[in-house]
Batch of 4 targets.
Target 1
Amino acid sequence: MYIFKKITDLQEYLSSQREKGLKIGFVPTMGALHKGHISLIEASKNGSDLTVCSIFVNPTQFDNADDLQKYNRNLPKDAEMLGLAGNEVLFAPSVQEIYPPDLDTEIRMEFGSLTKVLEGRFRTGHFEGMVQVVSRLLDIVQPNSLYMGQKDFQQAAIVNAMLSQQKREIELVVCPIIREAHGLAMSSRNTRLDPNDRQAAKAIHERLLIAKEQINDTPIDQIKKEANAHLEKVGFRPDYFEIVDGNSLQSLNQTSESEYVVACVAAYMKDVRLIDNMILRKA
Ligand code: AMP
């Protein structure tokens, strides 16, 4: 696997590969890799000729300094996992490389309510930072396809809107959520849960499954109320358990309002904030 830290070195290599007609698949990550990330590498390897994975803990998308500081960084371990997965190129730039002081990387785009609901209500500036880094990385890598996880449902919806507003000819492939054996969605933050909390955290997935069973015959308010109550009972502090339209991300009052119904949840277990979601119904 090639490892590049400098944009110019990466671009020199990628243009030589593009000249050979190779299609580039791109998987942006913040490292602390797990099987969820590796599933994106595998999807990219299936759909592209050359896979580029980036590892960059993007400071501009953290609304919480403590979260940024505690973010698990272990490049040698991540590189080993990527090598074993057959990833071809790793791009691991410094903050200086991505945000040189003399370059205006801010993206001034309007996404309407997409950035304001769900996570947007609780993480001020998070999506602005995410859009900034994804846009910057796409300018650098210029991939044919971009692989992201459904785990971050709202992020994928915003990136989709960004790609079309920027008129980029990049295919967005959204890959399924990879879970632990007991159902907890894999996340870099899971390592911060103690064994008891990690066990209790399976309740998020359980409630999503129950919501899926209930969706056709139970009022949405009741589904949400029961889910929140159960999450609180097992030790969570939910930020939200919402049932939304999968395109607009607007909350639904009745299931008949949409053909594409998704449950999205964010909840704290002690100081660890977890998010998850499930498509409850799609026409
Ligand atoms: P992150 O490093 O957390 O920014 O995540 C990088 C990419 O991996 C994002 O597109 C995430 O949606 C995706 N991802 C994270 N966790 C999972 C998971 N459990 N299953 C599938 N994809 C995931």
Target 2
Amino acid sequence: MSRLIVVSNRVTAPESRTRGPAGGLAVAGSAALREYSGFWFGWSGRTTETFTGEIERRLADDVTVMTIDLEEADFQEYYNGYANAALWPLFHYRIDLTADDRSYGEGYERVNRRFAETLAPLIQPDDLVWIHDYHLIPLGRELRRQGVTNPIGFFLHIPWPAPQLFTTLPRHQQLVAAMFDYDLVGFQTAECVAAFEAYVLDEAGGRRDGARLSAFGRSLRADAFPIGLDTPDFLALGRSPDAERACDRMRAHGVFRQLIVGVDRLDYSKGLPERLLGFERYLQDHPEMVRKVLYLQIAPSSREGVEAYQTLRANVLALGGRINAAWAEMDHAPMLCVNRNYSRAELAGIYRAARIGLVTPLRDGMNLVAKEYVAAQDPADPGVLVLSRFAGAARQMTDALIVNPYAPEELADALHAALAMPLAERVRRWEAMMDGVVRDDVRTWRDRFVAALEAASERPVSERQTPAAPRFAARSPRPDAIDSAGAYELRSGPGSAASAPGWRPTALG
Ligand code: GDG
């Protein structure tokens, strides 16, 4: 069996799964590698004054983890900059928050090159390479430049935006051109695949050949691979003493009250201010319920180095304060907003105690909290999931109460309907969703992706190594020449790619 090499920005070792930093990829990464030989490569989370390229290797819970440190400028330009101040907001439809700066793009290119230079010598001929998420989009191209001809797949955990938004990114075409060095590109939903395909066909002058998309003189396979939970692991966590204790504690605190819970990294994509406005609206519409509900919002801080996150934190805390100021009494507050991290076992217990799981992102690749909430429920008395239509999870979890998070009245009505829902209906909806959570778990996701990567790369090696002349539609703005290592070289002149609108022949940055 081939080794699997998983590459992501951050590597969270399995031993810290229970109380690790909050984040979906951290949860999925180690689950993807258990049962496979291979290793997980990425950033250690530490910075140094200058880049050393030294690899720290350790074995954690049978997963070999290899990490490198980044230099401080890399962290600012690549991580806080291009990845989290440009790509993250844009891919979550927040062009108003998208900040691009030449140094960010340069840092992004530099770190991807450094990852490739350090990783390439570790790759053996039979290995499959699986790269994760928006931090590392050009890594496949950089590995090809290092001479790596192995199958390389890429999975995007966040949404792929509609072309109308994506084209607002300076040098957007260069980013997509780099993706054509992958054999397989995976997205969370069919909607994201369609948005990517629309871009390739309409903006890059590419075409569909059966199951493959061709552009930039190359072809790849693009498909949807909805991520799931490590369901057995999460169910076991839910039976742990820590989970039991957290559940009892919540129930005791909410005695005679119905609990509503939200668990989200403090991120503007998660729709926290909009959710609080929905809860406020619910209290206004149903003042008789003020003493009968308790809304607990767990919101650990995230990416505090990025300004938009500091602003969001202040907004959320102010709104929470406003709601309690209006509705609390000396012995009662309708909501609690907790800006800290809990262990995953505690989260499982908290989910179980809650009658409603409130998951209302404005835009989300998948959203694992929705699945965790369902997995944690008591089958005899399950709670109700209220889920945003803009979470990838809404495509699968159609038995949730699906809402538009921008409409406070819809949130308020859904809360009302969920609290009034009879047991039989709660059980029916929960069973349907739980079937999906069990069936489409993280192993199904991993195995489907790996099988598709193996299949996608079953083509003549020559196609990867010495690309044929690009097969483009005439109006295609495209690179004029592609060198044998996969680097795009541009020649300007009338009618050439470099003179096409929207195409800037500069390095990313
Ligand atoms: C990205 C995509 C996609 C939250 N608070 C705590 C905590 N968490 C855990 C949750 C969950 C994870 O973090 C969050 O996962 P999500 O999927 O909800 O969101 P992102 O972090 O934005 O993840 C997303 C995901 O990648 C996977 O592909 O679904 O769309 O944006 O597991 O439980 N964990 C702990 N303490 C907390 O306080 N330990």
Target 3
Amino acid sequence: MTLPQPADLTLVIPCYNEADNVVPLIAGVRSALEGVNWEIVFVDDDSPDGTSHAVEKAAQTDPRVRLIRRVGRRGLSSAVIEGALSSTASVVAVMDGDLQHDEGILRDLVTPLLDHRADIAVASRHVEGGDSGGLANRWRHVLSQSGIRLAQTLLPMRLSDPMSGFFAIRRSLFVQALPRLTGTGFKILLELMLSVPKTARLVEVPFVFRPRVAGESKLSPLVMVQFLGMLIERACGGWLPTRFIIFAAVGAIGIAVNLLVSEAARFAGANFEMSQLIGTACAILANFQLNNRITYLDRPLRGKRWLPGLIIFVVGSAIGAFGNIGVAQLIYDTQGHWSRASAAGAVIGVVWNYAIASTLVWR
Ligand code: GDD
Ligand code: MN
């Protein structure tokens, strides 16, 4: 009996609700990569439409098809990371699972890497011959363009399409970059490019971004928020985590809610204490919900974990408020600076709340 050859190329396909696209995608890859020793890893976040089942069925007739099914977790970047980590091939390629990425160019993408002529190959919609026509609407075009401009200011190398989700990378390079990846949001390529050594050899291959046929896009406003947070994190040299930046921004929204609601309550005839109480309660609830939906989007509290989470959050925030006031008082007493004292108090408060939220509430 001859042993099957190990794969030279692992194709990682992040997918969520792409059941109808699995079979055509595998067929496309089969004909595009004839003669290459490839394998496909679908990383599915337990999609309700049965994507995992579709992959399992395909795997029963082709041993090159593999599945990673993640339960209770979501996220494109982290899915890509896990797929790549499951590979032992020398080259890893990443492609969307919705047929928007033209598998016809896969060979052009991976050959320079397999031949040791390049270390990263990016399928680009913005080099000669490429096209982003498949973006859902005008709004997406504008967002995509501004995102690219913003990202390019941070990048040490010239890359025309840093937002592409279609690329190949030498696995050793990926492993080297791994400790610096946040694993949040959609922009894994951009993060990789910010993390690999400047000596990495880069090629760009044009491709035409196709419109989606089945299923729908998962790129939401929340993903944009995460993206901005990631850019700020990088611009700060990485010492402020994205999550903390988003957490602090949510906190600022909470302050606005507090002011608006307590003003409204006062206007409606509530006395001072009552209006403060209503304002604070609304602010805490708004903060909790926003954190649950945005800051901790990858591990939201649902069902019977929601209320206990809220209670810990409220108790934690109350303790934080005492700490906040205490520190401000201390600094005011010793230094006499009003604004410096309250700023220091606020910073302590946010850091404390963040610590509680990340360790006790959204574990
Ligand atoms: N496992 C997993 N988990 N997969 C996900 C998740 C998730 O939470 N969210 C999205 N995906 C998968 C989708 O199923 C799809 O295969 C791929 O990731 C891209 O998601 P889409 O929702 O189709 O994204 P898009 O078409 O709007 O975005 C495209 O353009 C971006 C640049 O504008 C993609 O090509 C992105 O990779 C690219 O960054
Ligand atoms: Mn898509």
Target 4
Amino acid sequence: MSKLINVGMIGYKFMGKAHSNAFRQAPFFFDTPLTPVMKAICGRNEEGVKEAAEKYGWEGYETSWEKLVKRDDIDLVDINTPNSSHAEIAIAAAENGKHILLEKPMAMNLSEAKEMVKAVKKAGVKHMIGFNYRKFPALAFAKKMIEDGKIGRIFHFRAVYLQDWIVDPDFPLVWRMDKKIAGGGAIGDLAAHIIDMALYLAGDISSVSAVTETFIKERPLPEASGGLSESAGKEKGEVTVDDAIISLAKFDNGALGTFEATRFGLGHKNYAVIEINGSEGSMRYNIERMNELEYLSGEDGDEQGFKTILTTDATHPYMAAWWPPGHMLGWEHSHVNQVYHLLDSIAANRSPEPDFFDGLKNQAVMEAMSQSAQDGRWHDVEKVEI
Ligand code: SOE
């Protein structure tokens, strides 16, 4: 019988639902060394959070996050709130000795992220950032293949992240389009993910240049706040974040990178595609086909061509816990794998991965991209202290 770990979650909408499901499923599929007890979920709207607690299977609920992070019966705090509250909540959770799982992007800016790192270091708690795409078996397997030398020296890291949910100018101005709450637009919402994949698979980024654009400057204000799909009211408000970003990058290891992220990629729903070209091989991966990793080996001579590796065998990362080969995984399973990894790391007294240090590096890249988009120059990425 594994030991118990008491969990408190803040935020109960889109990501709160995904993470609640993950805490329920993780001990069902994995032999978790710690069994999560879903103590309390927290949100400002009492009716909404009470309903979420009952539906998702939490023992109780809170309407004050300040109260939740102080509760003696909570060991791990999972933060799924809009970006503007990440720093304040994470720092308070650390000060109260709680382990932390935090949704991406880490913070509103680099200086906030640095304060958060200071707080978790001082408190000695475990910390993890919800870059859940690392937890797709195919991406974790790509990492292993790269470490095994299957790509060789990396020359190019190419990434696009395209969604289309705000192409309609009448789509309401939800919090993700408000700089005061989101910090940035496509950059923090989408580019953060492909930057994380780059840091994970290709290494640190040394300098960047970027352009951004806001295509629709005003939108109807939503009738209610939260989620991705609120209904539009009559009044309009200003969109204060980027709708799209395109960036060039240089890596420390000499590789070159390109990043494009937009929520105006009509026809693309969650199209995050990366391609890596190296001296020994190339790789391609598309989140919309998340079980498949494409690989080309330079050794294949005139039989060269991309092959598709279906990463659903028990030998692929995380897969031994799931279904037989070919019984596909979906987006929510990456969150379950993430929770398993977090619990395993806490039990083994090891830092989970990606942790706040990875989040800080990611934030430094986004900061340099934002600066470049403002002044039109190349910017070095700050070498952050971890
Ligand atoms: C919305 O654009 C969003 O939900 C992101 O916020 C998530 O991080 C990504 O996984 C899917 O798209």
